[in-house]
Write a structure and sequence with these properties.
It comes from Candidatus Doudnabacteria bacterium RIFCSPHIGHO2_01_FULL_45_18. Belongs to the bacterial ribosomal protein bL19 family. The protein has no helices and five strands. With 112 residues, it is an all-beta fold. It has one domain: Roll (SH3 type barrels), CATH 2.30.30.790. It has a five-stranded antiparallel sheet, with no helix packed on it. It is globular and about 50 Å long.
């Protein structure tokens, strides 16, 4: 486990709370059949259902979205070099710290 890190390795991350709608820009490396690598940015937009570790080096955020009727969840380490940026689309706080109950199909109790 990495115990020391440099200050420039930490990113400036907005305040992320459960219920917020966020866009996570992630760098993806595609390899073509002839061996050439190409980088692109993939955007994952969804609702924050959990955060762990705060803004520390090992902090993560769990984002959930519905894609073609199927729930998709991804856990993003917020200080990963593959994460280009995280932007808050809509800051609607939830009444609970973890929104795992949205997995059952129940709508999130989020204030509009």
């Amino acid at each position: 486990m990495i115990t020391t890190f440099r200050q420039e390795q930490l990113k400036t991350v907005p305040v992320l709370k459960a219920g917020y709608i966020v866009r996570v820009h992630q760098k993806i490396t595609d390899v073509s059949p002839d061996g050439k690598e190409k980088q692109r940015v993939q955007i994952f937009e969804g609702q924050v259902i959990a955060t762990k570790g705060g803004k520390a080096m090992n902090g993560t955020v769990t984002v959930r979205k519905i894609s073609s009727g199927v729930g998709v969840e991804r856990i993003f380490p917020i200080h990963s070099p593959n994460i280009e940026k995280i932007e808050v689309v809509k800051a609607t706080p939830a009444r609970k710290a973890k929104l795992y109950y949205t997995r059952t199909g129940a709508e999130a109790n989020v204030r509009e």
